[in-house]
Amino acid sequence: MKRYLIFAAVGPFLGAFWLLLTNTLVSGYWSHPPTTAEIGKVLAFFVTALPYSYLFGLLPALMIAAIDDILFHVKRIGPIVRILMVGVIAFGATELLYGSRGQDNGAFQFIMFGLVGFIPGTISAWLVHRFVEEPEPASQGA
pTM for the whole thing? Predict the structure, then answer.
């Protein structure tokens, strides 16, 4: 249960921040050195839109948490490989969802929109590994 709570708390927050950053980069908002006022506007918008980020990002975060939970029960997969697998699956899912947004298509847009899922997925999976997972029981030899 703690796994799902971590993904639900961290995933939409980080995903929304990276999505906002990606959208502003792709649109050309940061094409010049930003002023303090412009950074303030972006952060104000982020805080204002945060409830909607949780509203629309909660279900995808819980789906990625379920994938992490499934991979956790596969004993042959170590924690580092599992964290990277969760990140790659989240990358692919968000790329399918957001990748065709806007008029630009290219490697930069592909990577940036994929990172919207990869960053929260890997950080959440790492937090679960670091703070939640119980150690494996010692195998009884005989």
Answer: 0.85
